Queue: 2 jobs
Job 1
Amino acid sequence: MNTTTVELPDEIYVRLASQAKARGVTISQVIMQYMETAEQVRNAVAIERLRMKGLLLAPGDSALLAPTHAKLLEVQGQPLSEAIIEERR
């Protein structure tokens, strides 16, 4: 684990120390919990913004599912990959 030093105003440090003592954890653990929560909130806000703009659909009944059955067809002619290679020449 890496160590980072952060300068905090005394009032914030006292609040963090109080919360850590009340929870029975270290100040570092309280800070990590706050950071994890902040990241989750940022992600949720970003997802909601994308949904509001219509750029992301929520999973649900309206989601299109891949067909559960498929019938293989035998095709004639040159494979597509070979046709593309020839076009590029």
Note: The first helix runs from residue 10 to 23.
Job 2
Amino acid sequence: MEESNSQGRLSMTEGNIEGGGTAPDPTPCKDTLHPEAKVRLMKILNERQGTARVKADFIDFEKIHLKYGFGSSESHQPPPNSEGDSSKTPGQTADARGPPKKKFKKERGMNHNRPRNRWVPVSEKLCPSIISGEVCSYGERCNYSHDIAAKAAARELDIGDRCYNFETFGKCRYGVVCRFGSSHLTEDFRNITDEEKFEANASKSATLNNLAIDLKVKLRKKKVKFEKAEQFLSLLAKSKKKSLRQFDQNEIRNGAPEETRCLSSTPGTAPSNLPTPVDEVGQNSVAVDQESTANQNQVLESGSVQRDAATNLGPDDAAPTLAACQATSNQSGDCVPLASQQPRSGIVTNQDIIRTRKCEKKQVNFEGKSYLAPLTTVGNLPFRRVCKRLGADITCGEMAMATNLLQGQPSEWALLKRHSSEDCFGVQLAGYFPDTISKCAELINTYCEVDFVDLNVGCPIDLVFQKGGGSALMGRANKFEDIVRGLDAVLDVPVTVKMRTGISEKHNTAHKLIPKIYDWGASLVTLHGRSREQRYTRTADWNYIRQCVEVAKPHPLIGNGDILSYEDVKTHLENSGAAGVMIARGALIKPWIFTEIKEQRHWDISANERLDILREYTNYGLEHWGSDTEGVEKTRRFLLEWLSFLHRYIPVGILERLPQKIQERPPYYVGRSDLETLFSSTNCADWVKISEMLLGPVPDGFQFLPKHKANSYS
């Protein structure tokens, strides 16, 4: 097969791409490299560590030759250091060599001084009420513009003639500002509604966990009450010893305090009608020693546990005390219901007195499921919808900071949104202290629909680590314990923990913490096989994950790291014994990995099929972020962030050795079509070209720099 040069392989007509037809074959180029040079280059590439094995027919030797030289093996070696510099002449002094060169410092992030889009003042935006055809309740006091005629006259050219929101829901809520408005606007710019389709979808709420305006106001005015969290924090502050802390935690979790629960007549034994705290974590029941019971009674008598039970009592009734409860118990230790002594009218629930115990919580079965990891920036709702359609079983939202959620920041609450197609969905919280995280968890438990809450103990970025959050919690065991216990106390759904092997690269600590984490109340631990210092620059240590699986038994443990094919999943599950795997970067590089896992095959996906996936993503983005100019550019930004990972995929048909490894960097190669070659480009300008195929031309002066620097190649 003849190779194409870099100029020829990117020259394609827009009609071939937008029409969705098959892209033409690569344009052949003049082969000027000697065959012996190709052989030498192939030998160097095959011996080079961290380089993927690509078939020789697809390698772009011309581009490799221009970058590395005429196949010289010396040109592939790293530059010599100051101690072994071969360029030094014997007897040459330091002064003769000139001033020493500055040491190259590798950038650790790409989110510094990134170009930003122009901020549009509120006065230039059309009022949302006017867009939807309603009357603005603020009238002249509204900060938005109400001049529809001026906005219609200044409309930008439409991107396309088909509006996804209008075709899906029967009405586009962006009206005159929609960039696809020609499909649902009249000549006088009135919004058209497909009544039949709109009524059929009116009752369907596609997006859940939206931040209500009244809740946002209450959060900002600090008028939201956190009864469960305040009770736990009060008990935590008064319980200095570990035994008392264990007692207080289970007391909140079990429900009513000792005043409303009947104890056995014999001191030092567990109640006959309730499981002991140890039973709830799956272990055999044990008797409570007399010293612990005495301490518990002391805490109760001192008034450390004061629960308001007046909601189920009359105005003249008093809350039942421990003595009253013991007085109404029979000789066998069974408690006589208080309702029989104090008749009431109507149905009285006990949710405010006896809260959900751990054994009564809704459990999530993670075993054997494909779990999409919480991915900052790129793991947004449209991307999760794509992965869900391709076979993902469990999804989790992006990392959300507990403090920002408590402040009612809409941008942070947007990370908790859930699509109706996500049948098993969780949110991930990050924070520094038990009070903020427990209050935030209670807030989510009350106002959001989630199946589990994940605690982030693996975030390696300095901004979070230096404040004591993320992976820093692995070095703050006491705070870590209080946070997990607080989550378990206030939540009615399971608590999961995502962590790393440790903080230091040479000192793993996860195996010491994992058994304790389950004792503290967590239902599942997900272990990323790298430390905080390693980030993504080393291979995930699945041997250490296997050790942690052993210490975690009989509890389940999920492994995470370096999964890019169904063979990786099969190998790691068999060798480590983990209950399942979490897929992170592998889903960004090839989201169809979930299909491969379910079907147990390598999918040689075509370039046009990959373009259809991107088109599906942009449609979901226009639905989620909006089809106006602001929504289109936001969709474009997140699409480009995803393309910064997606270009690393190497098509199955051009690989010499399967499967592709996540640390392997491909040599310069030519795809089987111009579109496939474009998808493999590492140039940001080519990613912008792909976005223009789907979202139209970029604004004047547009620049893009990826937020995450892909430094994970070997």
Note: Confidence is low (pLDDT under 50) at residues 1-30, 70-97, 255-341.
